[in-house]
Specification:
single chain, alpha+beta, Nucleotide Exchange Factor Grpe, Chain A, domain 2, three-stranded antiparallel sheet, three-stranded mixed sheet, stress response, protein homodimerization activity, GrpE, unfolded protein binding
């Protein structure tokens, strides 16, 4: 009796393991279709995941088909996406153009400020240049004093300072200040005959007009010819 019970308990402990055939065509972990098993065998899964396999298969297949259809946008969605891309591209081009214009404007303003500062310094030194010019005219500009004066003039010229106003120039009221006026038949029009004070410009701005004497054209007098005609008439 005891032997029979021990044999029965031994047989119960050695029950064959339960084998579950996984017939699902869709892998529940990856969502992709499984390749057919070799030799017609089907994959085995542990007993812990056995159950309503048919229900899981029915749920997995529509989900996979839905994901595939959702991955392919419709024609209307494609048109909407293309419109968004075009709008973003247009915005990017507009912002790029505005930034380029902003950089150019800032660069122009920076150059204008620098030129204004240089012109201001050069304008303050014009009286010094006048003194140097008068000293040179009187023969007092020589030696070390002349060397320093030449360096100053060369530095201002390299920075953009330019002197103008010379005898023989055509009179231009925008850059010349006429303080004396005369006439002569030797000139064909208003001409600068004497420079009383040299003018200066920096870049495109006139710092100081040149102070000059102007000679205008005067036609030759006809009185001598008329006197000759009177004398010839009296002799006749």
């Amino acid at each position: 009796m005891t032997a029979d019970r021990s044999e029965m308990s031994h047989n119960e402990g050695e029950q064959e393991p339960v084998v579950v055939r996984d017939r699902r065509r869709i892998d529940p972990e990856t969502g992709q279709r499984r390749a057919p098993a070799p030799n017609g065998e089907e994959a085995q899964v542990p007993e812990s995941i056995s159950g309503t396999l048919d229900e899981e298969i029915a749920k997995a297949e529509p989900a996979a088909e839905g994901s595939e259809s959702a991955a392919e946008p419709t024609q209307g969605e494609s048109a909407g996406l293309q419109q968004q891309v075009d709008e973003l591209t247009a915005d990017l081009k507009r912002v790029t153009a505005e930034y380029a214009n902003y950089r150019k404007r800032v660069e122009r303003d920076r150059e204008s400020v620098i030129a204004g500062a240089k012109a201001s310094v050069a304008g303050d030194l014009l009286t010094v240049l006048d003194d140097l010019e008068r000293a040179e005219a009187h023969g007092d500009l020589n030696g070390a004093f002349k060397a320093v004066a030449d360096k100053l003039v060369a530095t201002l010229n390299s920075a953009g300072l330019e002197a103008f106003g010379a005898e023989g120039d055509e009179f231009d009221p925008s850059v010349h200040e006429a303080v004396q006026h005369s006439t002569s038949p030797d000139v064909s029009g208003p001409t600068v005959t004497t420079v009383l004070r040299r003018g200066y410009r920096f870049a495109d701005r006139v710092l100081r007009p040149a102070m000059v004497a102007v000679t205008d054209h005067e036609p030759a007098s006809a009185e001598p010819a008329a006197a000759d005609d009177d004398s010839q008439a009296e002799q006749g």
